[in-house]
């Protein structure tokens, strides 16, 4: 359909500008399933939009870690949590930054800011393997830089108060932590798929939706639930950045949980949305 965007391409803008997520996907209600993204797309490597999207992911993840870890440090340094924003404030910092950053970068890179989100969208064939790997690398580099800047402000406090690194809290097992990360990431990635589904936008065009809002709210709610268990990872780049800059043994002991859990949760959310929710029917033979 010439001149019309066939789908909300979360991060798959190829050469031309793509329509940002959160806006009406098309002008009519006749929906056509877009073709899946190719596994490899060499042409992307010659496109400025590809590198611009990677830079956007780097900056967004940098800002995400900077604000969120700085908020964590402000809470943990106080002897009385009543004088700080507390766990609710930390959850709002994470969720609010995701809302703002997805809104700002959705039209450029898709606003993933999370390797688990990128992985889930890749499994659903929303972007190529080339772009997925590039995004993950830029997200991790941005996270490392964001945590590094926070440490630069108050090195002693950062090192003495855990540096915002994700660990399984005392009283919980590694299995508990892994389960919390799987379910938490499932909630996030499922929300991403639902909020950016062009088929739903075409069907329910009378219902306005701003995709970054439910995504940010999902991050907020998951943090409220799982901060006491793992500090809430659900984002391997966030966990890696804090672990590298903090760099203490106990930050690495459970680090695998914050990669395996989110990737499993993202894969389950992708399968659930594509197979059950989207329920693309098989054509019956006449």
Explain what the structure shows:
By secondary structure, the protein is mainly α. It contains eleven helices and no strands.
Note the topology.
Blueprint: H1 48-76, H2 86-105, H3 115-123, H4 129-153, H5 155-160, H6 174-195, H7 198-203, H8 212-230, H9 236-246, H10 249-253, H11 257-277
Helix pairs in contact: 1-2, 1-4, 1-9, 2-8, 3-4, 3-6, 3-11, 4-9, 6-8, 6-11
* Secondary structure tally: strands: 0
Shape: globular
Mean pLDDT: 86
Q: How can the largest sheet be summarized?
A: none
Q: Find the structural class using helix and strand composition.
A: mainly alpha
Q: Considering DSSP H and I runs of 4 or more, what fraction of the residues is helical?
A: 55-70%
Low-confidence segments: 1-9, 11-28
Strand content: under 5%
CA radius of gyration is 19 Å
Brief synopsis:
The chain has 286 residues and is mainly α. It has helices at 48-76, 86-105, 115-123, 129-153, 155-160, 174-195, 198-203, 212-230, 236-246, 249-253, 257-277.
Based on the model shown, name its key terms.
286 residues; 11 helices; mainly alpha
């Amino acid at each position: 359909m010439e001149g019309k965007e066939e789908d909300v391409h979360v991060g798959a803008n190829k050469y031309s500008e793509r329509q940002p997520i959160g806006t009406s996907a098309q002008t009519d209600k006749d929906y056509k399933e877009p073709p899946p993204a190719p596994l490899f797309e060499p042409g992307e490597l010659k496109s400025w939009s590809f590198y611009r999207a990677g830079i956007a992911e780097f900056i967004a993840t940098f800002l995400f870690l900077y604000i969120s870890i700085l908020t964590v440090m402000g809470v943990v340094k106080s002897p009385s949590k009543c004088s700080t924003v507390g766990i609710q404030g930390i959850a709002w910092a994470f969720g609010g930054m995701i809302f703002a950053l997805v809104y700002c970068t959705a039209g450029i890179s898709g606003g993933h800011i999370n390797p688990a989100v990128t992985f889930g969208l890749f499994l659903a064939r929303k972007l190529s393997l080339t772009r997925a790997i590039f995004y993950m690398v830029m997200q991790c580099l941005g996270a490392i830089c964001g945590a590094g800047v926070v440490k630069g402000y108050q090195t002693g406090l950062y090192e003495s108060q855990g540096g915002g690194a994700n660990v399984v809290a005392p009283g919980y097992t590694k299995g508990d932590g892994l389960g919390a990360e799987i379910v938490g990431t499932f909630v996030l990635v499922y929300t991403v798929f639902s909020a950016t589904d062009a088929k739903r936008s075409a069907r329910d065009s009378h219902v306005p939706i701003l995709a970054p809002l439910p995504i940010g709210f999902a991050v907020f709610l998951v943090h409220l639930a799982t901060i006491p268990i793992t500090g809430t990872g659900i984002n391997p780049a966030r966990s890696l950045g804090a672990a590298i800059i903090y760099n203490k043994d106990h930050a690495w002991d459970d680090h695998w949980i914050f990669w395996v859990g989110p990737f499993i949760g993202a894969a389950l959310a992708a399968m659930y949305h594509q197979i059950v929710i989207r329920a693309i029917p098989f054509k019956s033979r006449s």
